[in-house]
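Aim 2 progress update. The chain analyzed this quarter is reproduced below.
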Amino acid sequence: MKKIIAPQHATYLLKNARLPQWVYPSLSAVNGLDISVVDGKILSMAQSASNPSNLPIWDVQGALVLPLLVDAHTHLDKTLTRSRMGDITPGLLGAIQAMMADRIQWTPEDVYARANQGLTWAYAAGVQHLRTHCDWWEPHTQPIAWQVLQDLATAWQGKIKIERASLIPLHLYADASQAKRLAQQVAASGAGALLGGFVHTSNWDLQALQNLFKAAQAEGLHVDLHMDEELNPAAQGLLRATEIIRDIGFEAHVVCGHTCALSAQDRTQALKTLDEVAKVNMSLVTLPLTNLLLQDAVTGKTPTQRGLTLVQEARDREIPVLVASDNVQDPFCTFGSYDPLEALSTGALAAQLPNVFDEATQSICRIDWLTGTPATEPFAVGQAANFIVFKEANVWGFPSQTHQRLVIRNGLATQ
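Predicted structure tokens:
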């Protein structure tokens, strides 16, 4: 184990860092990089840099270094409820039933306490940007958690940027005027709000999906959907979404989470859908912890079908694919800790991803993939010195041995 002690001041020359190749693809080597930090900001970065200002040296001895993390798909409103539930019928629908029963206990204070604990874990893990979905079951009533999550976004400002996506069942968009009202409510609720929906064969309605996109377009909202979270090869939500985006000229960014049905479809059909996704402004999010647990879930039977989307095929088409925590210790997933590296570890194994550190870490660091904003270099001159140093991990085994980490914000360790 390397003895890497956090700096006591926010001015130093960080020496011998190992960054992932995707951060600076133009560099022939990403070993032995030196980063000058002055008053918590990055002054320069080079290989084997000189030290004309005679800065104190912090030598991390080749340790792996990542930008701070993004958790692209979570459910803070449901989090940490599993402990107060009894037996749950396996699978997605059983989890929904258990959650609906538990909602009776939800108060602003309850949601705030549970969600705040989740954010505390995320901050300690090195998360700087988190998107949470919020269940929205009534067309005329704003859910309790929606305002609570906005309050938390204010409370955590400067530590974690929090976005909120309204998780609204697709059937509530069937009426165009109601879809418009829902979008107006979301747009009026403040910055960081997105229009979302649950799209599944059990509630499939092409007109409702069209209404959702048209309502979002009218209000200038980005869209984030729970899409085809099932192993039914007849699911067509993802393909139809790409058609709608083109037909109405939808310009905002779209994120589709889950898309598990791709793995159950005829391969030719699934790849055709991915070809269409690659033509529009869309990112995908895979949720390995939750979907490995929920899909093909039957009591007393070892699952043979898994819940991942076609991660490698999407990446081959340069479709941005993020990996995220999803549900954490609620009826949908007993596991989880708001550490995106935990999700990446599971996803990398399940999807057999190669070059995890140098390539796949983009899926938990690229905020632009989530928001659709222009990409920025995470270690650019003038930016805050925000990064994570892994004291024990190595490139070949990554993300094993990543629990021991130093989270650096504005040049100083935060834990």
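The two ends are 19 Å apart (CA to CA). The first strand starts at residue 12 and ends at 17. These observations will guide the mutagenesis experiments scheduled for the next reporting period.
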